[in-house]
Design a protein that fits this description.
Length: 325
């Protein structure tokens, strides 16, 4: 984990997030319904493998004693497919990201629900009563660190010393917490901030055109399953407009983006799978503590930096987990 931001945020897994021995897989077959608010593409499948592989290691194997019923959709489509999932009464519902968690939470209070959510405070959102004792049918892995948006600005400013005007690309479906934190961070760092929206991957190109009207010299991208799915397109647009851009998801630097800092999402899926094993083993979500991401990574693409005429400070490179050249 990169020390740069960890010290500032004191990001640490609670005791409940430490590795646990998984219960033995039962002989009976189980069904897990998965709801994802985005496209079923390579980015999602790559991350989801962390969930699938952890279950398989514990003896839950697709085609033998496990059915993974994966449904995807955007906007109103998300509610429709969520309704289909709840009707089949799976043993567990897995809600990926805030829109899915909100949708599932509104539909059932009886089916056990596991969530991965990078945008919500689970208590403030009403998903759980407390982090140690959720008290209902939902538990999961939540990154309730909206102030991380301010740290993204800090990293970008250290990477781009002349940074003054910053565009923020966000998906309104994820809620305003991170955007509000980015605005506070911009004030602290004396940066001018301009927010642009993309609710679907198809809107990313137009969002960049909107951003460039304000003549930014940098951009941060907030967490969203839609924007994660559009990582490659964001990288292409950032290159086209010669705009230094930071994105939370580690794969962004490998896609050609300048810098990425955030939770290792595949590891989060594996972490969620350990909670799924507890639920499938008979524990109630009401008694399974909410966890936070356990692994964050910092990545730079030096080829992109050279194209933009930037030199990454040695102090940042020394803290990087991954450097692409």
């Amino acid at each position: 984990m990169a020390a740069l931001v960890v010290a500032a945020l004191a990001i640490a897994a609670p005791p409940s997030a430490q590795p646990q021995h998984a219960p033995a897989a039962p002989n009976k077959a189980v069904r897990i319904g998965v709801l994802y608010p985005g496209a079923d593409n390579a980015v999602f499948r790559g991350n989801f493998n962390g969930f699938r592989e952890t279950l398989a290691a514990a003896g839950y194997v697709e085609g033998r004693n496990l059915t993974l019923d994966v449904r995807t959709g955007d906007g109103r489509e998300l509610a429709r497919v969520a309704g289909e999932l709840t009707k089949v009464r799976p043993d567990l519902l897995f809600a990926v990201a805030r829109p899915a968690a909100i949708t599932i939470h509104a539909m059932t209070s009886t089916i056990p629900v596991l969530a991965i959510d990078l945008e919500s405070d689970p208590v403030a959102s009403g998903f759980v009563k407390t982090l140690p004792r959720p008290g209902g049918n939902i538990t999961g892995v939540f990154m309730d660190f909206p102030e991380l948006a301010g740290k993204w600005l800090e990293i970008l400013k250290r990477t781009v010393p002349t940074l003054a005007r910053v565009a923020v690309l966000w998906d309104p479906a994820t809620g305003p917490a991170q955007l509000d934190a980015a605005r506070r961070g911009a004030q602290t760092l004396k940066l001018t901030l301009h927010a642009v929206e993309a609710r679907t991957t198809a809107e990313i190109e137009a969002a960049f055109r909107d951003a460039m009207r304000e003549h930014p010299n940098g951009m941060i991208v907030l967490t969203s399953p839609i924007l994660n799915s559009g990582r490659r397109g964001i990288s292409e647009q950032a290159a086209r407009h010669r705009l230094p851009t930071l994105m939370p998801f580690p794969g962004y630097a490998h896609d050609g983006g300048l810098v990425a800092y955030g939770p290792d999402v595949k590891t989060m899926y594996a972490q969620a799978a350990t909670l799924a094993l507890k639920i499938l083993g008979g524990q109630s979500p009401a008694m399974i503590p909410v966890e936070r991401p356990t692994r964050f990574t910092l990545s730079f693409n030096l080829k992109t930096a050279r194209t933009l005429g930037l030199t990454i400070p040695p102090a940042l490179l020394a803290r990087a987990d991954d450097v692409i050249d």
